[in-house]
Design a protein that fits this description.
The chain is α+β, with helices and mostly antiparallel strands. 16% of the residues lie in helices and 47% in strands.
Length: 343
Amino acid sequence: MSWEAPLECPEPGEFEARVRELVRSEGLEVLLQGREFEAAAVVAANAGTGWRAWLRLRDGAFEATHELEGGDCSVLASRVAAVVATTLDPFAFAVELERTVEVEASVAVAAIEVFPLPEPRVQRPRPRAPELEPEPPPERAPEPRAQRPSAPAEVRAVRERPERERPERGRWQAVVVLGAGAALNRFDGPNAALVGELGAQRGLLRLSLEASGQLGGRFRLARDPNVGGDLRGWSVGPRGCLVPAWKSLSVPVCAALGAGQVRAEGVGVQSSQVERGAWVWLGPEVGLSWAPIPSLAVLARVGLPLNLRRPSFSVESPDGSYAMPLVSGQAILGLELRLPAPD
């Protein structure tokens, strides 16, 4: 058996001890003797709803997968232990029932046995004479009945459908994004793009600051492809996102603003010079991230920025000019680090 859980949850030894308490008196080693049994449980924080456990069971040719949720990790561990114990021994609940009976029997005053006594049978007396009415039998006080004790709370939680728990408000977590991709219609032809993002997220809301670099851009004159300029640029700006999530998938929908500059250096001209122009853009972005583990995700996103402040450059001898288009596009593929792991 294996138990992987955050520090807030019970340790593996405590989880195994709960399984041992639920199996029959033969003991866990006796039940496992001669059986190919495997139980692997992984617990992770669930966004806004407490904790979630994934349990994989294999008992010979039998295989099953369970997914359980709970607001308290300790209670969730007891539920997982009950599922494991039931798979090992269908009568695993008998130990808990017997313990509950012993405790209640030692405290009860009127209850002597744990099983209900038979109903008292009342016999009517034989009539003395035909003309006399039989006397009614004396009333007997009803004897107390012993009630069968109910199953423990942890066992009932497995048998019954758990109630939906009230979601808890999430905590802030740091988000770091590193990615690379390509930009289109920003310069003459596609160019490489690098991005880095640092922010914080709580629930669905994410606020961050992004820095990006544009490399390998250029423009050339139509009548002379050897004359023009080499371009590269950078920008820094805030981002605001809504990040709905479902299991290990999330879809960030963002609005981004950036400000920076574009650097141009003349190529194929008589006197090469370096010029710089201010650059401001605003636009929407949408992405898709998949987290194989809670703290790390693979991210892909696309954006359609609107260039509000567009730099322009010109060359002489021969004459020619370039101005950044109004609308451009960008696609990024990267990694997303979340610290601590999301709930």
